[in-house]
Amino acid sequence: MKKPVYKELVAASSRPMVLSILTGGESYGYEILKQVKLLSGGELEWSDGMLYPVLHRLERDGFIAGRWQLTDEGRRRKYYRLTDRGKGQLASDRSNWSAVHAALQTSWGGGHV
Q1: Model-level pTM?
Q2: CB 16 within 8 A of CB 8
Q3: Helix H segments across 3-83?
Q4: Are residues 67 and 22 in contact, defined by beta-carbon separation less than 8 angstroms?
Q5: What is the CATH code of the structural domain delimited by 7-107?
């Protein structure tokens, strides 16, 4: 039985995760959810209720842009893409997460846990 990932860690990692996924090109909610699960080896399973507020916040902050498109079935689907501002934020997030990861690795490797 796998252990659940703490909500606080998921929340903190949601922005860089979504921005990173969108570096691969436009995507929509369900595909982003599938990518999160795939990239985490099944460890992270985000819900719609968790993802869509993140997407709305990222769009409001100018890190992503959304556009509506009709599917072949006639339904509307919103596609998101990374903006230049989002690319800058992702670079900053990468730097910050790398620093945190390095500090944790050093701490854990030193037998402090």
Answers
A1: 0.87
A2: no
A3: 7-22, 29-39, 48-60
A4: no
A5: 1.10.10.10
